[in-house]
């Protein structure tokens, strides 16, 4: 049996249309489909064939605008080279910035935790009540928004 190595790409989604304090209305399925379209456009059938079996959008947080993409080791370079060229996801004008590429999901979540903690510290000054701060912390530090069951359909 052969073990397949994966790479996890942590991406920040920047949208000038939506203010920083409002969440994006972004689903991981739309993000995944947009990424596949761009890879098809830039790398053709070879890029799609190399990535089709292992490409998943593992995590997409609308509050902090961070997503994690899983790709197989090797073809993950097609993903990282295609990300800067994505300018529209659905109806949103966006700019994608690669934050981290890791070998395990655990290390990506550790990186996100540090990144989101600094994001929280910068936004806490704008909030007035303690209840607002607790609600923001709960939304930002929520790592349960993985849409794996939606992405399973594309594997089979």
From TrEMBL:
SUPFAM superfamilies hit by this protein: Rnp2-like
Principal subcellular localisation of the protein: nucleus
A single MF term (Gene Ontology): ribonuclease P RNA binding
InterPro entries, per the entry: Pop5/Rpp14/Rnp2-like, RNase_P/MRP_POP5, Rnp2-like_sf
Gene3D superfamilies in the record: Ribonuclease P, Pop5 subunit
Subcellular localization(s) per the UniProt record: Nucleus, Nucleolus
Cellular component terms (Gene Ontology): nucleolus; ribonuclease P complex
One Gene Ontology biological process: tRNA 5'-leader removal
Keyword Nucleotidyltransferase: no
Keywords: Nucleus, rRNA processing, tRNA processing
UniProt function note: Component of ribonuclease P, a protein complex that generates mature tRNA molecules by cleaving their 5'-ends.
Family classification: Belongs to the eukaryotic/archaeal RNase P protein component 2 family.
UniProt name for this protein: Ribonuclease P/MRP protein subunit POP5
Species this protein is from: Pararge aegeria aegeria
Gene name as annotated: jg1770
């Amino acid at each position: 049996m052969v073990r397949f190595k994966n790479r996890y790409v942590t991406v920040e989604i920047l949208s000038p249309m939506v203010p920083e304090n409002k969440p994006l209305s972004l689903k991981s399925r739309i993000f995944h489909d947009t990424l596949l379209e761009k890879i098809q456009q830039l790398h053709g059938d070879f890029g799609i064939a190399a990535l089709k079996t292992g490409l998943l959008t593992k995590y997409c947080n609308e509050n902090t605008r961070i997503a994690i993409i899983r790709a197989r080791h090797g073809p993950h370079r097609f993903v990282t080279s295609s990300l800067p060229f994505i300018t529209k996801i659905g109806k949103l004008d966006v700019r994608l910035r690669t934050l981290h590429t890791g070998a395990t999901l655990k290390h990506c979540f550790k990186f996100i935790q540090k990144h989101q903690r600094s994001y929280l510290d910068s936004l806490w000054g704008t909030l007035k009540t303690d209840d607002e701060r607790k609600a923001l912390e709960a939304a930002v530090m929520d790592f349960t928004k993985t849409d794996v069951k939606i992405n399973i359909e594309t594997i089979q």
